[in-house]
């Protein structure tokens, strides 16, 4: 069932009602309150879920609230649960941004909305708000009941959210998630810059810090060079043993855990609308198409992120750092889980470190993680989204698996027992988590139409 | 010739006239102006040497001035050139300081003066000022003519100073360094916490950054993990190939360049007042005494300092850094020089990187360096200092070589052609360049007496 013409027309003619505030990450609770107020103004009943406190940077901090929302309770209609996150990744102008990362810049020439969070994940949240606003202002009834779950800790492990969702589900008829028929999450990206996508898989993640400590304090390399066991020497050597130049993970048992693809699966990857130019433009490297796609979608990956506690500034400080943490993470695919991976990582690093016969101390710290996920693409939830994309974009979507992790996807799938759909709004080159993050204006406008149309198709689904 | 009793008595009774301002590094020019004013008040004629500008952190910055000073021109007296530096290493409270690093704290319980620069190198400069003040206030003539050279860029490669000194020397009779008979530098430390030292050798240094660049911008490890050649993988692998766990330098030709010690030299190291407890207390490691001492004094060392451009904060950012620089430096001993070392480093890293067959770009950047140095300990300059130490401390000094680098030492030795002496004020556990840097009050007071007495012994030398 297509959306009413008046809906798409409203989105086109009200395209300038984009909020221009992408707030700083430390203002995340303020951002939550702002979002809550917007929802209330649109007639959405909400409650702010206190997720308690957590330890970070040596402090006990209040977690930003999860916002649970409810719009409509018509038993004759289907109920869609919508998820988004209102927090963003860190960003500094000095990282290489051309504009202030926390001021949304509308570049009329390129048609781009530029700023931290534009595509990940404030743009999609505003898309949903615009869908509701359009129906409110046009006086049209929503085609489905909607439930919301917006969180403010996605970029830092979604702390506290799983428990919150599971408790809400456990309340059964008294809970706000009672009667949810399907879930829709818009927090990922097209495979390319041309063709909308529906996503049925996500990689999980396990994030680690290798902590090496030696001397009681930082030392002068002139005074102590070649007289002490330097923690950096051990740490760098350990980090060098994690991943090979071609991306192969050197920790035994991790790459092997994934079954090889068969011919049918290979053809699936060959069919996708993708050229190596996409990866060249976005990442500056050349690879074979199927290797790139499988590398992202059906293989684990290991990335070295950096070192905490070492010299990281401009200049030439002659320090022997005494206490350092090497950060890396592994993206996981089925059947891998953090529970299966963590012992392999610990055992390998401990065995390698033992070979050094070092006087330093080493511990592997597991910081956070999430399981990978795959969904059934033949479900009516995916069919509804496919029809919405065909109606708005006049194209058949790519069916993709995503390389990133959104742990809450699995929480919804497992605790609600319903189909979960990932319906991306942005493009592959948006630069999420990177400098100069953007969302194309056309993706925001047409994407908002897709979100609205999807709700109509869900409402009409058998 | 001993110093007059009134001099030592003055230093004892005026021990509280310690200036309490250790200024922030960015205020280094202000610090220079303050020091210049102090010198003028004490009757020292000065000129501020404009060292021009340099490029740092993408900006063109005015270099802090070198202060050249002159006190006395009696042709019947010897002339001593005194060097010190009024800049300090960076320091943040969050690095692990127990007190604000830029406020001098006098801890009465431990008898320590705590703060950035207390021992490196503001304490010794204040010692010299106190020697002059004592003579001025007591109305005693100085036993020698004194020339000063105080700079504000020592901790960042002494930019501009070499040329300044060389030009001053070239002026001959019109220059302020005309007639200098010897040089005294107080900018290092005793070998231990008990016995004063005279230092006749310094290691040089060559400081490098391995710059690896790949993608056009930082990337999200979920989106791009296992699809691009990650610069961190290459950089960490290169850094892991520089130095072994036991401190051996893996770059071919560097360790080999140093001739092995003979039996006589070994005995020299065995005789030094040193126990492994000294290194245990200061660095938390156990080593054999001669290995530790030779490691610091007669062997090169390679330290990995950190990575610029990677994730270095608390937390768990899932970034693939696009442009990173791995910082390391090599401490040099004769016959090594930066000129001999740099090509070896470049050739090795380029060859190793070529083996990776990586699509990233790598360049080895040589940031700064200085040659190593050794002096003749039988010279009257060293004899004068030995007598001063015996007079004040009632102990025979250790004759040491130092692990750090003070490139200006070599500049003075080569351009003036006179003997240069290193006369340390602080102890081995002072924590120069580290957290909670301190100078023991007793070292400051007795050390100031040594500086004054040394001038008398120079004056009396044949």
Automatic annotation (TrEMBL), chains A, B:
Signal peptide: none annotated. Residues 200-355 form the Peptidase M20 dimerisation domain. Belongs to the peptidase M20A family. CDD domains: M20_dipept_like_CNDP. One of its GO terms (molecular function) is peptidase activity. The keyword Cell division does not apply. PROSITE patterns: ARGE_DAPE_CPG2_2. GO terms for biological process: proteolysis. Pfam families: M20_dimer, Peptidase_M20. Keywords: Hydrolase, Metal-binding, Protease. The keyword Protease applies. It comes from Suillus subaureus. This is Peptidase M20 dimerisation domain-containing protein.
